[in-house]
Amino acid sequence: MIIKKIDNHTRDLSPPEGVSGDDCGHLFIRDVKTYLGNEMYSAWEPTPKEIDLIKNGATIYLGIIGTQHPMVRLLVGNKLLEEDE
Fold first, then answer.
1. Domain membership flag for residue 76
2. Which residues have a Cβ under 8 Å from the Cβ of 52 and sit 6 or more positions away?
């Protein structure tokens, strides 16, 4: 996946301390207030190879570093979830 610059981003997160920029690039975040509280969104673009895999039924996986799994959303589309939708 390729990190995209999300429209109206509110923050630019650097790689975590001790992680090189080669392993983890800058992540542009858009904060959205919802009934659950603050949600952070980033935008990603599949590579051409990943697009072909998805078209052929490949599963999309979400990886979380650590031992606790936070609540997450995984969305597809051209419009980000708007406040209180």
1. no
2. none
| 29 φ, ψ (degrees, to nearest 5) | -115, 140
Strand extents, DSSP E, the chain: 2-4, 11-13, 27-34, 37-41, 43-45
Number of domains within the chain: 1
Name 58's Cβ contacts closer than 8 Å, sequence gap at least 6: 50
Q: Is residue 61 part of a domain?
A: no
> Residue 46 in contact with residue 33, Cβ under 8 Å?
no
pLDDT tens for 20-67 read: 877 787 899 999 998 999 999 999 999 999 999 999 999 999 998 888
Which amino acid would we find at residue 32?
V
Is 66 part of a structural domain of the chain?
no
Does residue 75 lie in a domain region?
no
Amino acid identity, residue 25?
G
